[in-house]
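Batch queue: ligand-bound targets. Current item pairs a single chain with adenosine-5'-triphosphate. No template structures supplied; prediction is de novo from sequence plus SMILES. Inputs echoed for audit trail.
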Amino acid sequence: MPEQAHPAVRLRAISKRFGAVQANREVSFDIAEGSVHGLVGENGAGKSTLMAILYGYYQADAGAIEVDGQPVQIKDSQQAIALGIGMVHQHFMLVDTLTCLENIMLGAEGGFLLKPSKARVRARLDALMAETGLHVRLDAVAGDLPVGELQRLEILKALYRGARILILDEPTAVLTPQETDQLFVTLRRLQELGTTLILITHKLREVMNLCGAVTVMRAGQVVETRPIAAWSEAALAESMVGRKVTLGRPAGLETRAGDVRLKATGLNLKHANGVAALKDVSLALKAGEIVGVAGVSGNGQSELLEVLSGLRAPEGGRLELGGQAFTPHAWLDTAQARPLRLAHVPEDRHAVGLVMSFPAWESAVLGYQNLPKYRRGAAMDHAAMKAATREMQQRFDVRPRDENLGSSKFSGGNQQKLILAREIGEQPIVLLVGQPTRGVDIGAIEFIHNQLRALRDAGCAVLLVSSELDEILALADRVVVMNCGRITGELAIEDCDERRLGLLMAAQEERAAA
Ligand SMILES: Nc1ncnc2c1ncn2[C@@H]1O[C@H](COP(=O)(O)OP(=O)(O)OP(=O)(O)O)[C@@H](O)[C@H]1O
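Prediction returned. C-alpha coordinates below.
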Protein backbone atom coordinates (compact mmCIF):
# COMPACT_ATOMS: atom_id res chain seq x y z
CA MET A 1 0.00 0.00 0.00
CA PRO A 2 1.47 3.42 -0.86
CA GLU A 3 2.46 5.57 2.09
CA GLN A 4 -0.35 8.06 2.82
CA ALA A 5 0.50 11.73 2.98
CA HIS A 6 -1.30 12.03 6.32
CA PRO A 7 -3.77 10.01 8.34
CA ALA A 8 -7.48 10.88 8.40
CA VAL A 9 -7.21 11.46 12.15
CA ARG A 10 -4.17 11.91 14.35
CA LEU A 11 -4.67 11.96 18.11
CA ARG A 12 -1.75 13.28 20.13
CA ALA A 13 -1.46 12.95 23.92
CA ILE A 14 -5.18 13.40 24.58
CA SER A 15 -5.99 13.53 28.30
CA LYS A 16 -9.35 13.89 30.01
CA ARG A 17 -10.28 13.68 33.67
CA PHE A 18 -13.72 13.42 35.30
CA GLY A 19 -13.26 14.18 39.01
CA ALA A 20 -11.09 11.42 40.38
CA VAL A 21 -11.26 9.35 37.18
CA GLN A 22 -8.56 9.78 34.54
CA ALA A 23 -10.70 8.64 31.59
CA ASN A 24 -8.01 9.30 28.96
CA ARG A 25 -4.29 9.61 29.64
CA GLU A 26 -1.97 10.84 26.87
CA VAL A 27 -3.75 8.87 24.18
CA SER A 28 -1.94 8.92 20.82
CA PHE A 29 -2.59 7.00 17.62
CA ASP A 30 -3.29 7.53 13.92
CA ILE A 31 -6.28 6.40 11.89
CA ALA A 32 -5.40 5.81 8.23
CA GLU A 33 -7.63 7.36 5.62
CA GLY A 34 -10.13 4.90 4.16
CA SER A 35 -9.43 2.28 6.83
CA VAL A 36 -11.66 0.52 9.33
CA HIS A 37 -9.92 1.15 12.64
CA GLY A 38 -10.97 -0.92 15.65
CA LEU A 39 -10.95 0.55 19.15
CA VAL A 40 -11.25 -2.07 21.88
CA GLY A 41 -10.70 -2.30 25.61
CA GLU A 42 -12.32 -3.20 28.89
CA ASN A 43 -15.44 -1.48 30.16
CA GLY A 44 -14.45 1.95 31.34
CA ALA A 45 -11.15 1.89 29.42
CA GLY A 46 -12.02 5.31 27.96
CA LYS A 47 -13.07 4.46 24.39
CA SER A 48 -16.38 6.35 24.37
CA THR A 49 -14.82 9.35 26.11
CA LEU A 50 -12.08 9.53 23.47
CA MET A 51 -14.59 9.38 20.64
CA ALA A 52 -16.80 11.95 22.37
CA ILE A 53 -13.76 14.26 22.34
CA LEU A 54 -13.21 13.65 18.62
CA TYR A 55 -16.90 14.38 18.03
CA GLY A 56 -16.73 17.61 20.03
CA TYR A 57 -19.02 16.46 22.81
CA TYR A 58 -16.28 16.77 25.43
CA GLN A 59 -13.21 18.99 25.41
CA ALA A 60 -9.88 17.32 26.15
CA ASP A 61 -7.93 18.72 29.11
CA ALA A 62 -4.73 18.41 27.06
CA GLY A 63 -3.54 17.08 23.72
CA ALA A 64 -4.03 17.80 20.04
CA ILE A 65 -6.13 16.51 17.16
CA GLU A 66 -5.33 16.65 13.47
CA VAL A 67 -7.90 15.89 10.78
CA ASP A 68 -6.54 15.30 7.26
CA GLY A 69 -3.19 16.68 8.39
CA GLN A 70 -4.58 19.95 9.76
CA PRO A 71 -4.55 20.81 13.48
CA VAL A 72 -8.15 21.36 14.61
CA GLN A 73 -10.07 22.52 17.67
CA ILE A 74 -13.38 20.68 17.89
CA LYS A 75 -15.55 22.70 20.25
CA ASP A 76 -18.89 21.05 19.53
CA SER A 77 -20.48 18.47 17.29
CA GLN A 78 -21.43 21.12 14.70
CA GLN A 79 -17.71 21.68 14.21
CA ALA A 80 -17.05 17.95 14.05
CA ILE A 81 -19.71 17.63 11.35
CA ALA A 82 -18.20 20.56 9.44
CA LEU A 83 -14.88 18.67 9.50
CA GLY A 84 -16.58 15.60 8.03
CA ILE A 85 -16.79 13.61 11.28
CA GLY A 86 -20.01 11.72 12.03
CA MET A 87 -20.98 9.55 14.98
CA VAL A 88 -23.53 6.80 15.47
CA HIS A 89 -24.14 6.49 19.20
CA GLN A 90 -25.09 3.37 21.16
CA HIS A 91 -28.41 5.02 21.98
CA PHE A 92 -29.87 6.57 18.88
CA MET A 93 -30.47 10.31 18.72
CA LEU A 94 -33.77 10.24 16.83
CA VAL A 95 -37.22 11.70 17.38
CA ASP A 96 -39.63 8.75 17.49
CA THR A 97 -42.67 10.68 16.35
CA LEU A 98 -41.05 12.11 13.19
CA THR A 99 -40.58 10.34 9.88
CA CYS A 100 -37.11 9.26 8.79
CA LEU A 101 -36.98 12.09 6.27
CA GLU A 102 -37.92 14.65 8.93
CA ASN A 103 -35.33 13.21 11.29
CA ILE A 104 -32.65 13.70 8.66
CA MET A 105 -33.79 17.24 7.87
CA LEU A 106 -33.99 18.19 11.55
CA GLY A 107 -30.96 20.21 12.53
CA ALA A 108 -29.25 19.62 9.18
CA GLU A 109 -27.22 22.46 7.75
CA GLY A 110 -28.76 25.65 6.44
CA GLY A 111 -30.82 28.24 8.31
CA PHE A 112 -34.59 28.27 8.25
CA LEU A 113 -34.76 30.20 4.97
CA LEU A 114 -31.92 28.26 3.35
CA LYS A 115 -33.42 24.87 4.11
CA PRO A 116 -33.64 22.79 0.95
CA SER A 117 -37.07 21.52 -0.04
CA LYS A 118 -38.19 18.06 1.03
CA ALA A 119 -38.15 16.98 -2.61
CA ARG A 120 -34.49 17.95 -3.01
CA VAL A 121 -33.46 16.28 0.22
CA ARG A 122 -35.34 13.16 -0.82
CA ALA A 123 -33.62 13.10 -4.20
CA ARG A 124 -30.19 13.37 -2.58
CA LEU A 125 -31.07 10.65 -0.07
CA ASP A 126 -32.32 8.35 -2.81
CA ALA A 127 -29.01 8.76 -4.62
CA LEU A 128 -27.07 8.18 -1.38
CA MET A 129 -29.08 5.06 -0.60
CA ALA A 130 -28.50 3.67 -4.10
CA GLU A 131 -24.77 4.33 -3.80
CA THR A 132 -24.28 2.89 -0.30
CA GLY A 133 -26.97 0.20 -0.14
CA LEU A 134 -28.28 1.74 3.11
CA HIS A 135 -31.97 1.22 2.68
CA VAL A 136 -34.38 3.26 4.84
CA ARG A 137 -38.12 3.87 4.38
CA LEU A 138 -38.01 7.66 4.40
CA ASP A 139 -41.73 8.19 5.02
CA ALA A 140 -42.04 5.72 7.88
CA VAL A 141 -42.33 7.10 11.42
CA ALA A 142 -39.04 6.37 13.23
CA GLY A 143 -40.77 4.95 16.31
CA ASP A 144 -42.33 2.18 14.20
CA LEU A 145 -39.08 0.86 12.75
CA PRO A 146 -36.89 -2.05 13.85
CA VAL A 147 -33.53 -1.27 15.44
CA GLY A 148 -31.52 -2.29 12.37
CA GLU A 149 -33.35 0.23 10.20
CA LEU A 150 -32.99 3.01 12.79
CA GLN A 151 -29.28 2.39 12.77
CA ARG A 152 -29.21 2.66 8.97
CA LEU A 153 -31.11 5.93 9.37
CA GLU A 154 -28.44 7.23 11.78
CA ILE A 155 -25.67 6.29 9.34
CA LEU A 156 -27.56 7.85 6.45
CA LYS A 157 -28.09 11.02 8.48
CA ALA A 158 -24.36 11.27 9.17
CA LEU A 159 -23.47 10.70 5.51
CA TYR A 160 -26.07 13.24 4.37
CA ARG A 161 -24.31 15.77 6.56
CA GLY A 162 -21.05 15.02 4.79
CA ALA A 163 -19.35 12.54 7.13
CA ARG A 164 -16.15 11.10 5.65
CA ILE A 165 -14.98 9.83 9.02
CA LEU A 166 -17.65 7.82 10.78
CA ILE A 167 -17.46 6.71 14.43
CA LEU A 168 -19.62 3.71 15.34
CA ASP A 169 -19.98 3.00 19.08
CA GLU A 170 -20.83 -0.68 19.60
CA PRO A 171 -23.04 -0.76 16.51
CA THR A 172 -23.85 -4.47 16.70
CA ALA A 173 -24.73 -4.62 20.42
CA VAL A 174 -28.42 -4.18 19.65
CA LEU A 175 -28.60 -6.03 16.33
CA THR A 176 -29.74 -9.54 15.46
CA PRO A 177 -27.15 -11.74 13.69
CA GLN A 178 -28.96 -11.10 10.39
CA GLU A 179 -28.91 -7.34 10.92
CA THR A 180 -25.22 -7.55 11.84
CA ASP A 181 -24.38 -9.31 8.58
CA GLN A 182 -26.27 -6.63 6.69
CA LEU A 183 -24.42 -3.86 8.56
CA PHE A 184 -21.07 -5.43 7.68
CA VAL A 185 -21.96 -5.43 3.99
CA THR A 186 -22.80 -1.72 4.29
CA LEU A 187 -19.61 -0.89 6.18
CA ARG A 188 -17.46 -2.64 3.56
CA ARG A 189 -19.31 -0.70 0.86
CA LEU A 190 -18.68 2.59 2.70
CA GLN A 191 -15.02 1.73 2.95
CA GLU A 192 -14.88 1.07 -0.81
CA LEU A 193 -16.38 4.52 -1.28
CA GLY A 194 -13.50 6.00 0.73
CA THR A 195 -15.11 6.52 4.14
CA THR A 196 -12.86 6.12 7.18
CA LEU A 197 -14.58 4.05 9.87
CA ILE A 198 -13.80 3.91 13.57
CA LEU A 199 -15.40 0.92 15.23
CA ILE A 200 -15.78 0.52 18.99
CA THR A 201 -16.80 -3.03 19.81
CA HIS A 202 -16.44 -5.80 22.37
CA LYS A 203 -16.91 -8.49 19.75
CA LEU A 204 -13.46 -9.60 18.76
CA ARG A 205 -14.64 -11.71 15.85
CA GLU A 206 -16.06 -8.54 14.28
CA VAL A 207 -12.76 -6.80 14.80
CA MET A 208 -10.89 -9.62 13.09
CA ASN A 209 -13.38 -9.62 10.18
CA LEU A 210 -13.61 -5.93 9.47
CA CYS A 211 -10.70 -3.90 10.76
CA GLY A 212 -7.41 -3.07 9.12
CA ALA A 213 -5.79 -1.96 12.36
CA VAL A 214 -6.74 -2.08 16.03
CA THR A 215 -5.93 0.06 19.04
CA VAL A 216 -6.29 -1.51 22.47
CA MET A 217 -6.96 0.77 25.45
CA ARG A 218 -6.72 -0.09 29.13
CA ALA A 219 -7.37 2.23 32.09
CA GLY A 220 -7.47 5.33 29.89
CA GLN A 221 -4.23 4.59 28.06
CA VAL A 222 -3.29 3.07 24.74
CA VAL A 223 -1.74 -0.36 25.24
CA GLU A 224 -0.81 -0.73 21.57
CA THR A 225 -1.92 -0.17 17.97
CA ARG A 226 -1.16 -2.88 15.42
CA PRO A 227 -2.26 -3.86 11.92
CA ILE A 228 -4.84 -6.64 12.01
CA ALA A 229 -2.39 -9.24 10.63
CA ALA A 230 -0.38 -8.83 13.82
CA TRP A 231 -3.40 -9.62 16.05
CA SER A 232 -5.37 -12.77 16.85
CA GLU A 233 -8.59 -12.96 18.88
CA ALA A 234 -6.68 -14.46 21.81
CA ALA A 235 -3.93 -11.82 21.63
CA LEU A 236 -6.53 -9.03 21.56
CA ALA A 237 -8.36 -10.47 24.57
CA GLU A 238 -5.14 -10.79 26.52
CA SER A 239 -4.00 -7.30 25.61
CA MET A 240 -7.37 -5.82 26.68
CA VAL A 241 -7.70 -7.59 29.99
CA GLY A 242 -4.05 -8.15 30.89
CA ARG A 243 -4.48 -11.92 31.35
CA LYS A 244 -5.63 -14.98 29.43
CA VAL A 245 -9.41 -15.30 28.99
CA THR A 246 -11.30 -18.55 28.46
CA LEU A 247 -14.79 -18.43 27.09
CA GLY A 248 -16.96 -21.31 25.97
CA ARG A 249 -18.34 -24.34 27.70
CA PRO A 250 -16.10 -25.96 30.29
CA ALA A 251 -15.59 -29.69 29.68
CA GLY A 252 -17.47 -32.17 31.85
CA LEU A 253 -20.34 -29.88 32.78
CA GLU A 254 -23.21 -32.08 33.99
CA THR A 255 -26.85 -31.23 34.37
CA ARG A 256 -28.45 -32.17 37.65
CA ALA A 257 -31.88 -30.64 37.35
CA GLY A 258 -34.06 -30.96 40.46
CA ASP A 259 -37.63 -29.93 41.34
CA VAL A 260 -39.69 -27.56 39.25
CA ARG A 261 -39.20 -24.01 40.61
CA LEU A 262 -41.31 -22.06 38.14
CA LYS A 263 -44.05 -23.33 35.89
CA ALA A 264 -45.85 -21.29 33.27
CA THR A 265 -48.75 -22.73 31.30
CA GLY A 266 -50.60 -21.41 28.26
CA LEU A 267 -49.30 -17.82 28.38
CA ASN A 268 -50.99 -15.51 25.90
CA LEU A 269 -50.20 -11.85 25.44
CA LYS A 270 -51.07 -9.25 22.81
CA HIS A 271 -49.15 -6.15 21.77
CA ALA A 272 -50.99 -2.82 21.97
CA ASN A 273 -51.77 -3.12 18.24
CA GLY A 274 -53.52 -6.45 18.77
CA VAL A 275 -50.77 -8.63 17.30
CA ALA A 276 -49.99 -11.67 19.44
CA ALA A 277 -46.70 -11.39 21.35
CA LEU A 278 -46.96 -14.72 23.20
CA LYS A 279 -49.02 -17.65 21.95
CA ASP A 280 -49.76 -20.49 24.30
CA VAL A 281 -46.29 -20.53 25.85
CA SER A 282 -45.66 -23.22 28.45
CA LEU A 283 -42.36 -23.64 30.22
CA ALA A 284 -41.03 -25.22 33.40
CA LEU A 285 -37.74 -24.25 35.06
CA LYS A 286 -36.09 -26.72 37.38
CA ALA A 287 -33.65 -26.17 40.20
CA GLY A 288 -30.05 -26.46 39.05
CA GLU A 289 -30.57 -25.89 35.34
CA ILE A 290 -30.06 -23.07 32.88
CA VAL A 291 -32.67 -22.97 30.14
CA GLY A 292 -31.54 -20.93 27.14
CA VAL A 293 -34.08 -19.16 24.95
CA ALA A 294 -32.79 -18.89 21.39
CA GLY A 295 -34.44 -17.11 18.52
CA VAL A 296 -34.21 -14.05 16.37
CA SER A 297 -34.84 -11.01 18.63
CA GLY A 298 -38.38 -9.75 18.60
CA ASN A 299 -40.08 -13.14 18.58
CA GLY A 300 -41.53 -12.94 22.07
CA GLN A 301 -38.41 -13.44 24.18
CA SER A 302 -38.60 -9.97 25.77
CA GLU A 303 -42.32 -10.31 26.49
CA LEU A 304 -41.75 -13.72 28.06
CA LEU A 305 -39.27 -12.16 30.50
CA GLU A 306 -41.66 -9.30 31.25
CA VAL A 307 -44.55 -11.62 32.01
CA LEU A 308 -42.55 -14.08 34.12
CA SER A 309 -40.93 -11.28 36.13
CA GLY A 310 -44.25 -9.61 36.98
CA LEU A 311 -43.62 -6.47 34.93
CA ARG A 312 -46.65 -7.26 32.80
CA ALA A 313 -49.74 -9.47 33.15
CA PRO A 314 -50.68 -11.76 30.27
CA GLU A 315 -54.22 -12.05 28.89
CA GLY A 316 -54.28 -15.76 29.48
CA GLY A 317 -52.33 -18.45 31.28
CA ARG A 318 -51.09 -19.40 34.71
CA LEU A 319 -47.88 -19.14 36.67
CA GLU A 320 -46.80 -21.28 39.60
CA LEU A 321 -43.97 -20.01 41.75
CA GLY A 322 -42.98 -20.58 45.37
CA GLY A 323 -46.13 -22.57 46.19
CA GLN A 324 -48.43 -19.87 44.83
CA ALA A 325 -50.46 -19.76 41.63
CA PHE A 326 -51.08 -16.58 39.63
CA THR A 327 -53.74 -15.98 36.99
CA PRO A 328 -54.13 -12.92 34.72
CA HIS A 329 -56.46 -10.95 37.01
CA ALA A 330 -54.19 -11.38 39.99
CA TRP A 331 -50.82 -11.67 38.29
CA LEU A 332 -47.50 -11.61 40.06
CA ASP A 333 -46.19 -8.09 40.59
CA THR A 334 -42.59 -7.09 41.02
CA ALA A 335 -43.05 -6.30 44.72
CA GLN A 336 -44.17 -9.91 45.31
CA ALA A 337 -41.37 -11.32 43.20
CA ARG A 338 -38.49 -10.34 45.51
CA PRO A 339 -39.83 -12.09 48.64
CA LEU A 340 -40.44 -15.19 46.47
CA ARG A 341 -36.74 -14.96 45.58
CA LEU A 342 -37.37 -14.40 41.91
CA ALA A 343 -34.71 -12.10 40.47
CA HIS A 344 -34.71 -10.40 37.10
CA VAL A 345 -31.85 -8.91 35.11
CA PRO A 346 -33.71 -6.96 32.43
CA GLU A 347 -32.63 -6.70 28.83
CA ASP A 348 -32.85 -2.92 28.78
CA ARG A 349 -30.74 -1.51 31.57
CA HIS A 350 -31.72 2.06 30.78
CA ALA A 351 -35.46 1.52 30.86
CA VAL A 352 -35.85 -0.81 33.84
CA GLY A 353 -32.44 -1.76 35.22
CA LEU A 354 -31.07 1.37 36.85
CA VAL A 355 -32.44 4.80 37.60
CA MET A 356 -29.91 6.87 35.71
CA SER A 357 -30.43 10.01 37.79
CA PHE A 358 -29.83 8.14 41.08
CA PRO A 359 -26.41 7.67 42.65
CA ALA A 360 -25.03 4.14 42.25
CA TRP A 361 -25.97 3.12 45.81
CA GLU A 362 -29.66 3.82 45.24
CA SER A 363 -29.68 1.93 41.94
CA ALA A 364 -27.78 -0.92 43.61
CA VAL A 365 -30.56 -1.61 46.14
CA LEU A 366 -33.50 -0.87 43.83
CA GLY A 367 -36.31 -3.33 44.56
CA TYR A 368 -34.48 -4.64 47.64
CA GLN A 369 -34.72 -1.50 49.80
CA ASN A 370 -37.20 -3.14 52.18
CA LEU A 371 -34.94 -6.04 53.12
CA PRO A 372 -34.31 -6.04 56.90
CA LYS A 373 -30.59 -5.49 56.35
CA TYR A 374 -31.35 -2.14 54.70
CA ARG A 375 -33.70 -0.90 57.45
CA ARG A 376 -33.22 0.55 60.88
CA GLY A 377 -36.66 0.43 62.46
CA ALA A 378 -39.04 2.25 60.16
CA ALA A 379 -36.25 4.19 58.44
CA MET A 380 -33.95 3.22 55.61
CA ASP A 381 -30.38 2.56 56.61
CA HIS A 382 -28.46 4.52 54.00
CA ALA A 383 -25.10 3.63 55.52
CA ALA A 384 -25.90 -0.10 55.17
CA MET A 385 -26.99 0.44 51.56
CA LYS A 386 -23.78 2.27 50.74
CA ALA A 387 -21.65 -0.40 52.41
CA ALA A 388 -23.51 -3.11 50.45
CA THR A 389 -22.94 -1.18 47.22
CA ARG A 390 -19.20 -0.94 47.92
CA GLU A 391 -19.16 -4.68 48.50
CA MET A 392 -21.03 -5.32 45.21
CA GLN A 393 -18.65 -3.03 43.34
CA GLN A 394 -15.71 -4.90 44.80
CA ARG A 395 -17.09 -8.37 44.04
CA PHE A 396 -18.18 -7.57 40.49
CA ASP A 397 -15.22 -5.33 39.74
CA VAL A 398 -17.44 -2.33 38.97
CA ARG A 399 -15.22 0.62 38.10
CA PRO A 400 -14.86 3.18 39.48
CA ARG A 401 -15.54 1.89 43.01
CA ASP A 402 -17.59 4.91 43.95
CA GLU A 403 -21.01 4.33 45.47
CA ASN A 404 -21.91 8.02 45.26
CA LEU A 405 -21.24 8.47 41.53
CA GLY A 406 -24.37 8.99 39.43
CA SER A 407 -25.61 5.78 37.75
CA SER A 408 -25.38 7.45 34.33
CA LYS A 409 -21.71 8.27 34.86
CA PHE A 410 -20.64 4.62 34.75
CA SER A 411 -19.65 3.14 31.41
CA GLY A 412 -22.26 0.81 29.87
CA GLY A 413 -20.56 -2.42 30.87
CA ASN A 414 -20.08 -1.26 34.44
CA GLN A 415 -23.78 -0.39 34.72
CA GLN A 416 -24.57 -3.94 33.63
CA LYS A 417 -22.21 -5.41 36.24
CA LEU A 418 -23.94 -3.37 38.95
CA ILE A 419 -27.37 -4.75 38.02
CA LEU A 420 -26.05 -8.31 38.00
CA ALA A 421 -24.42 -7.80 41.38
CA ARG A 422 -27.75 -6.60 42.81
CA GLU A 423 -29.85 -9.41 41.34
CA ILE A 424 -27.45 -12.30 41.89
CA GLY A 425 -26.31 -11.10 45.28
CA GLU A 426 -29.46 -12.13 47.16
CA GLN A 427 -29.13 -15.78 46.11
CA PRO A 428 -32.37 -16.06 44.13
CA ILE A 429 -34.02 -19.44 43.59
CA VAL A 430 -35.25 -18.38 40.15
CA LEU A 431 -33.27 -15.97 37.97
CA LEU A 432 -34.64 -14.51 34.75
CA VAL A 433 -31.87 -12.92 32.78
CA GLY A 434 -31.97 -11.07 29.45
CA GLN A 435 -28.81 -10.34 27.44
CA PRO A 436 -26.54 -10.57 30.50
CA THR A 437 -23.37 -9.61 28.67
CA ARG A 438 -24.60 -7.01 26.20
CA GLY A 439 -21.97 -4.27 26.02
CA VAL A 440 -19.76 -6.10 28.50
CA ASP A 441 -16.04 -6.67 27.89
CA ILE A 442 -14.56 -10.09 27.37
CA GLY A 443 -13.00 -10.42 30.82
CA ALA A 444 -16.33 -9.49 32.41
CA ILE A 445 -18.18 -11.99 30.16
CA GLU A 446 -15.99 -14.74 31.56
CA PHE A 447 -16.73 -13.54 35.10
CA ILE A 448 -20.50 -13.24 34.54
CA HIS A 449 -20.69 -16.68 32.93
CA ASN A 450 -18.90 -18.17 35.93
CA GLN A 451 -21.34 -16.42 38.29
CA LEU A 452 -24.34 -17.80 36.39
CA ARG A 453 -22.87 -21.33 36.45
CA ALA A 454 -22.20 -21.01 40.18
CA LEU A 455 -25.81 -19.95 40.79
CA ARG A 456 -27.03 -22.93 38.81
CA ASP A 457 -24.74 -25.25 40.78
CA ALA A 458 -26.17 -23.80 43.99
CA GLY A 459 -29.62 -24.94 42.81
CA CYS A 460 -31.02 -21.80 41.19
CA ALA A 461 -33.31 -22.22 38.17
CA VAL A 462 -32.12 -19.86 35.44
CA LEU A 463 -33.90 -18.68 32.32
CA LEU A 464 -31.40 -17.11 29.93
CA VAL A 465 -32.54 -15.02 26.98
CA SER A 466 -29.62 -14.12 24.75
CA SER A 467 -29.20 -13.09 21.16
CA GLU A 468 -25.68 -14.55 21.27
CA LEU A 469 -25.82 -18.21 20.30
CA ASP A 470 -22.27 -18.63 21.64
CA GLU A 471 -23.51 -17.52 25.02
CA ILE A 472 -26.42 -19.94 25.03
CA LEU A 473 -24.15 -22.80 23.98
CA ALA A 474 -21.64 -21.92 26.71
CA LEU A 475 -24.22 -21.81 29.50
CA ALA A 476 -27.47 -23.65 28.84
CA ASP A 477 -28.44 -27.19 29.85
CA ARG A 478 -31.33 -27.19 27.42
CA VAL A 479 -32.45 -24.75 24.78
CA VAL A 480 -35.91 -23.70 23.64
CA VAL A 481 -36.39 -21.88 20.36
CA MET A 482 -38.97 -19.10 20.09
CA ASN A 483 -40.56 -17.90 16.92
CA CYS A 484 -43.51 -15.57 16.36
CA GLY A 485 -44.46 -15.74 20.03
CA ARG A 486 -44.42 -19.54 20.27
CA ILE A 487 -41.98 -22.04 21.63
CA THR A 488 -41.33 -24.01 18.50
CA GLY A 489 -38.55 -26.36 19.45
CA GLU A 490 -36.53 -27.73 22.35
CA LEU A 491 -33.11 -29.35 22.29
CA ALA A 492 -30.92 -30.89 24.98
CA ILE A 493 -27.53 -29.20 25.01
CA GLU A 494 -25.83 -32.38 23.72
CA ASP A 495 -27.92 -32.07 20.55
CA CYS A 496 -27.18 -28.38 19.99
CA ASP A 497 -24.56 -26.76 17.91
CA GLU A 498 -24.54 -23.37 16.29
CA ARG A 499 -25.36 -24.79 12.86
CA ARG A 500 -28.24 -26.93 14.08
CA LEU A 501 -29.79 -24.14 16.12
CA GLY A 502 -29.30 -21.69 13.28
CA LEU A 503 -31.04 -24.08 10.89
CA LEU A 504 -33.88 -24.66 13.32
CA MET A 505 -34.38 -20.91 13.78
CA ALA A 506 -34.22 -20.29 10.03
CA ALA A 507 -36.58 -23.18 9.24
CA GLN A 508 -39.07 -21.89 11.76
CA GLU A 509 -38.89 -18.47 10.18
CA GLU A 510 -39.62 -19.88 6.74
CA ARG A 511 -42.54 -21.81 8.08
CA ALA A 512 -43.89 -18.70 9.78
CA ALA A 513 -43.49 -16.68 6.58
CA ALA A 514 -45.22 -19.36 4.47
N1 LIG B 1 -19.58 12.36 32.48
C1 LIG B 1 -18.80 11.59 33.27
N2 LIG B 1 -18.61 11.89 34.57
C2 LIG B 1 -17.83 11.13 35.37
N3 LIG B 1 -17.16 10.04 34.95
C3 LIG B 1 -17.30 9.68 33.67
C4 LIG B 1 -18.13 10.42 32.76
N4 LIG B 1 -18.08 9.82 31.54
C5 LIG B 1 -17.25 8.76 31.67
N5 LIG B 1 -16.77 8.67 32.94
C6 LIG B 1 -15.80 7.67 33.45
O1 LIG B 1 -14.70 7.64 32.56
C7 LIG B 1 -14.22 6.30 32.40
C8 LIG B 1 -14.18 5.95 30.93
O2 LIG B 1 -15.54 5.75 30.48
P1 LIG B 1 -15.89 5.41 28.97
O3 LIG B 1 -17.38 5.46 28.87
O4 LIG B 1 -15.09 6.27 28.07
O5 LIG B 1 -15.39 3.91 28.85
P2 LIG B 1 -15.58 2.84 27.68
O6 LIG B 1 -14.21 2.32 27.37
O7 LIG B 1 -16.31 3.47 26.55
O8 LIG B 1 -16.44 1.71 28.41
P3 LIG B 1 -17.63 0.70 27.90
O9 LIG B 1 -16.95 -0.34 27.07
O10 LIG B 1 -18.15 0.09 29.17
O11 LIG B 1 -18.64 1.52 27.16
C9 LIG B 1 -15.13 5.43 33.24
O12 LIG B 1 -14.50 5.18 34.47
C10 LIG B 1 -16.37 6.26 33.43
O13 LIG B 1 -17.02 5.93 34.64
